Amino acid sequence: MISQKEKKFEGIYNDLVELIGARKVSNKIVDLLSYSHDYWPITLFWLLEGKVPSLPDVVVFPEKTEDVVKVVRYAYENDVPLYPYGGGTGVLGGAVPEYGGIVIDLKKMRKIQIFEEDLIVEVEAGVNGMLLETHLNKKGFTLGHFPQSLYSSTVGGWISTKAIGQFSTKYGGIENMLIGLEVVVPPGEILHFKPNPRAAVGPDLKGLFIEAEGMLGIITRAYLRIWPYPEKRILMSFISDTLADALEAVKNILRRGAKPAVIRIYDKVETRKWFHMIKRAKGKVGTIIILEGDSILVEAEKHIVEEEFKDAIPTGEEPAKYWLEKRFDVKELPEFLPLGIVIDTIEVSVPWSKAVDLYNDVINAMRNVEGTLIAFAHASHFYPQGVCFYFIFGGIPPKEKSPLDYYREIWNATMRATLRNGGSISHHHGIGRMRAMWIAEDLGKSIFTFLKKIKSAVDEKNIMNRGNMGV
Amino acid sequence: MGKIGWLLEAIKGSAFGTKLTALKKFLLEKSKVDDLTKCALCPNMCRFACPVSIVDAKETTSPAGKARIALLLRSNHLERNSDNALPLYYCISCNVCSIWCMFGFSVAELIRPLRAQLFKEGIYPDSLKDPLENLKSHHNPFGFKIKNTNTGCGDTLFIGGCFLRKFYPNAAEKIKAVLKKLGYDVFELSEEFCCGYLAYEIGDEELFLEIARNNADKLNSTHAKTVIMACPTCVYVYRELYPKYKIKLKAKVYHTSEVIMMNIDKLEFLERREIVTIHDPSKLAVGLDKPDIIREILSRIPGLMVRLPMRYGKNTFSCGSEGLLLHWIDNELEKEINLERAKELEEESNIIITASYICKKGLEGDNRRVYDLVEYIFDSIK
Prior knowledge:
The complex is a heterodimer. Chain A is built from 17 helices and 18 strands.
């Protein structure tokens, strides 16, 4: 039975109640349990067996930056680990309170203010993604950021994990949207990076907090670029003979300066899912393209897309419509995990020149792990320099292996294949606890050491998300 | 190539043994994975639509968070006590989650069987004991007797409901006047009893059934052909829940908004040159599947401009008071949700029109004029 067997830090509940008020602090077992994990699939697997990765001692719910300052100061003075928590949709265990202590949930901080003339929105860190987008749409704007977790995740979580959305080829990742930031750092200081279209005032220090996963400070506020709501949208799709053909077409589209909002190239296996309504797509590679924005620009982009896909077969709007309808369906994990089927996704990035080799190598590596049932991928984020592949695997651990053993083995095979093909081990999910063992190899020893130095300079007592990324 | 066929194709390359195990699991075990488990394993994809989750802003009371607690209580991995069970009652039962859920689940309905089981074990929030006692002793959760004078008989029975009788006792006269214009000469029961929704919500199925049977007997003995109710929750209970428990009513049950819509041509509207906004009660928009009815009725009033809030129709954001559970278990949170919704509506207009006296009360405030639809119609007809 789940219970808090030992409190790692005695007395902190009463102290925090005194500091920020009883309604903003909890040590109830149901709350500790709720914050013992994020959406790291293996921890959900354990949840079904009534196991928890690690319980915090206390959860706090700040309502304003000053509350966060008090909590950080307290944690610093008392050497208590502190873990920021947003929507809990991270898939790598980045929010697991590994060493006990305080989980700080930012979702009570959810003010939004739009500066229409400057195309800037000021948001507190706990603002829910879908609510932000709905709010902007009502006023005639869009952020253009649509991660699959949109309905559940928060702005603070996006920045902390360097999130990216489905419309990224036009609007960019969260790092391209972020122009100002407020962060609380140990020992309890507020850093306020004011919003500017661009600034050259020393190094871009706010960049330190993008994909820092709460290891350097707690993001409390952000200033993001917004756009007028798109005037026109065009849906297109094509089928190509090979993955290389589709990648080549997209590479040329980007080289010509066109920026489709959405580009998704499915391998032959996944094409069967998203192009199920197109009979001749069997054995082919399907590409979905969505263009949006000013109608004149969009028409010009359509022309470029058609020219570059001239050797492919156009398959109309249907696959793109189907994708738009189903893009937030995440049924697989709830349906298959209880059957003992281990499922996960792994996203990596790679330059164009190595893209096909990396894809083939990773798929083979996944398939070669005993127990693997499915392994396929799509490319869903593109740059003039390269591409992000999103691999999906599912498997049944063989009898002699635990689900965790199988899970580690397939992850290791994928990471090794990525590194030997010159790829980056993460494109947008981040590192968390799952990828910690490969970060040094990806960054290189000197950069990893530099990261550690920065961490100890900012957080000398190592209270911020202790243990994350293996730093 | 079917929507599922691609998966069979996808597993082709895997080892024979793995494939066989997977197919066995898929064919024999998939149907055994229950809906609560699936909900618990979801990354909270309906969270943004859940008023409790957005305003309370805690994982524990998020939709999937509640399902996870329910799952662990059900499997006895978590001790069954009222403290651990409390999050299960942090739900307005607005069912807007079901609109966004990829499986179509209502979290309230997924959790309800466990609430019923826990109730049998004597586990439910202490704060609900008084209203439950009132329900037994006074036939409503507020602990007063509802006595009406306009009793008698006829074809159309009007039921104001315990909330209206308690907090807006004079409103019934305006409603009856509007109904008269629509052609309904109504009578009332000498004593009105609660529909029993609170008992249903708490999980006291025995009491709910007793109330339901009693109400059905009373209604059926009046010979009324039509029953018109002021409260959309009551209509939902009579029309949707009673039949689920095999309780039959002879009369047809309508909400006031529905009879207005059905007979709208009988009303002669005055011109109203003002801007209003609307609040769709979830029980009307989602529970009774009438997401557009307030807008449609108001569109008949000449000169009136209706501005839609950010969330409306089936995507409405509950005022927080519907279902009444929060009122007793966390009055502070109820008020926070009230204010959250009221602020959203005020962005459009400080004149708010809803179709539920529970919502009206929840949304009222210093700078806001909140009307029940029938009240507004009363002021807008010749």
